[in-house]
Amino acid sequence: MGIRLRAYTSVQIGPEMPAYNIFREGMVLDLNCPNARLILEKASTSRAYNLRYSWLLFTNNDTNLEDILADLVILPDADVVVIVQERMFDVYRVKIGEPLTLHDFGIGRRRLKDFLISMPTTVTRRKNLMNVYLKAATIVSQPQFFKGWSDLRDRQIDTFPKLTYPLMMLLAEDLNFRYNMKQIDLYGEEHNGSFNGLAGILQREEVEVGVASMFLRKDRWRVLHYCSETVELVGAFMFRQPAQSAVSNVFLLPFSRGVWAAAGAVFLGAGLLLATLGFIVRYRALPDDCGPRLTLGETITFAIGAVCQQGSDLAPQIMSARILMLFTLLSSVFAFTSYSAKIVSILQAPSNAIQTIDDLSRSPMAMGVQETTYKKVYFAESTEPATQRLYKRKLQPLGEGAYLSVVDGIARMRTGLFAFQVEQNSGYDVISRTFTEREKCGLKEIQAFKLPMVAVPIRKHSGYRDLFAVRYVNKSNELTRLRWQRETGLMDRTRRVWVARRPRCEADSGGFVSVGLTDVLPALYILLAGAAVAVILLILEILAKASRSFQRHQIIHF
């Protein structure tokens, strides 16, 4: 590790001083040099009075110090130290247009070296902005629903301005300044190189800071900066998993294929064995009046009736046939009991048919998206093929009809097969107030894209950014304010107040579930199929009888 030293003897070839770079720089300037003011003005224009630079200025005369530093943008994040003979001053302004603040360190020349090594960082030295007013703006997108910054009834509306407001008020109280606040209704979108909304007034330097949280986006970094992340915003398609009957035949689900095959083999074997016993009775002329009826058709009908818990008028007298029929009926009771219990649990539980974005695209679900300023942006910018397929197949054909308020979207999600792309915190708040306990248990979420973090926006090259946000630790472990709020849990407390949590499922195994028409459709289809087959067979029997009658009539006539 080393230090690179450059000495400039002429102000005309002075150093380039970009506001930001990957390394820090120290500047030493003798104010008694001719045209030293030009270097100071160049640094002011390029915003080089910030935390990246440490300035050490020398002069022998303190009478003209304010004249030399007049109108320079030396704001609270500037690290500017002026040595006047035996005295050392910390110099900054609390705001552009305000007089210079000179703080005498009270350090003599003998202690100067040790003090410079251990001197607190700039942001830990600036703790009092002297009750100055800073221009700020916040967002109220739906004024008709706004009832104050502490009103929790409509948390899903303007959640992030409401969440950020108490944090920024605490910051102002901590650093002793106030806001000159204005209200706007948009976060800001880019049009022809310029932004509207909050991003636009920060771009035009009409305000110093935004009392809200905005997405950390690449296009916005060109025109503004951010001073601290607040919370993570998660958006997802929320929906209630469809019932098992909506995606499969519930009458086939209780048993696996192996169990169905085994059960079929058992009851088919019972029917065949009973038919064999009937053949033996008839072949050996055993004394059993039921023997002639134990044909293959009758015994298979008995096996089917046993499966369906139906009785039979077959009453064979031989003991082997009776035992076979008894155990066939017992087996059907056990199988039917297991089948009934399982099908009840299947009807009560939602399915797991939809697990991915592609599953959602192929499903019969209708879809909607929360009405937000970024409602189309992240679908259009997504590079995931599955997300693009879903957007083009399900959302794009709907046009503006795809975009709904949180309340309307959650209401549709509750009452039908509907998936709603919504910010989690907004969706959870409405769900916790409108869904029953059982309805909360079937919730499913699938993320179509990952949203960026949200942070407090501030004017580009603002003189307060590092003071508000960046974490610096000195020997006394002092932190700057927004990061200090995060470290001490104040930010987390505010997040818990304004960001709703996922509703807990507390009624997964209780309650009453009605069986709908969809649940019994397969049974109705079987009934209709059987009725159709019966009608067809009846027609064939009638035709066959008519044909035989016609043939007999022809023979007699002949």
From TrEMBL:
GO cellular component terms, A-Z: plasma membrane
Domain of life (superkingdom): Eukaryota
One of the record's GO molecular function terms: ligand-gated monoatomic ion channel activity
Key words of the record: Cell membrane, Glycoprotein, Membrane, Receptor, Transmembrane, Transmembrane helix
Ranges where the Ionotropic glutamate receptor C-terminal domain occurs: 259-513
UniProt subcellular location: Cell membrane
Topology relative to the membrane: Multi-pass membrane protein
Biological-process GO terms, alphabetical: detection of stimulus involved in sensory perception
Location, primary (coarse class): membrane
Family matches, as PANTHER family: GLUTAMATE RECEPTOR 2-LIKE PROTEIN (PTHR42643:SF33), IONOTROPIC RECEPTOR 20A-RELATED (PTHR42643)
Family: Belongs to the glutamate-gated ion channel (TC 1.A.10.1) family.
Name of the protein in question: Uncharacterized protein
